[in-house]
Amino acid sequence: MRPHPVPLDFVFRSRSKEEKAPAAQAPVTDSKQPRNPQAPKGRPTPKRAMAQSQRRSVTNKPASRKEAAKHQRDARRTQMAKQREALASGDERFLPARDKGPVRKFARDFVDSRFCIAEYFLPLAVIILVLSIVRVAQLQNIALLLWLFVIVLIIVDSVVTAFRLKKRLAERFPTENRKGAVAYALMRTLQMRRLRLPKPQVKRGERP
């Protein structure tokens, strides 16, 4: 049996189709761009700042509530230690909120530079109490008169101190908030000088 001849037009048609068919394009890769080995495949490399912030957040994040509470206690203990040092040295940066500010500092210096009768209130009160306990009529009468005399002196001295301090604050700090400064200073006069906190920064008679 003789084989059937293959038509020439079929051969040329198949070759022309193969030549016209486009070749599959290979994916273009940029060999110059470095790839982060930690980045997953198929995703862009994260920016350095973002990666560093993520690492810091993971590092600083407490592992449990117990560790978080411990960090808070340590921070509170450190802050209290700084406040105690500031109360002794007068460092404005770490003073409690009630003692901060130039107005409060001037009020403290104004009181510390004066001789105040109120600072001897506790010692005088103890003496008067002892005299009143003694079962002697004359001593009890003396204790009563002495008590009245001390109270009057403290009231007069406090009124004079408040008036002068208020005037000085108005002259020195006309635009500052002076609310509560006079009461703050009068409460300081009731404390003995060596026991006052923050510690006095001026001497008696020294102009603040």
Can you describe this structure?
- The protein has 208 residues and is mainly α.
- Among the domains are: 68-99; 101-195.
- Helix content is 58%, strand content 0%.
- The chain contains 7 helices and no strands.
- It has helices at residues 8-20, 48-60, 65-89, 102-112, 121-133, 137-172, 181-189.
- Helix 5 packs antiparallel against helix 6 and helix 6 packs antiparallel against helix 7.
- Computed Rg: 43 Å
Strands, count? 0
Order of helical and strand elements: HHHHHHH
Arithmetic mean of pLDDT: 78
Distance between the termini: 132 Å
Summarize the main sheet: none
What's this model, at a glance?
By secondary structure, this protein is mostly helical.
Task: Name the features.
208 residues; mainly alpha; 58% helix
Chart the SSEs and their pairings.
Layout: H1 8-20, H2 48-60, H3 65-89, H4 102-112, H5 121-133, H6 137-172, H7 181-189
Helix pairs in contact: 4-7, 5-6, 6-7
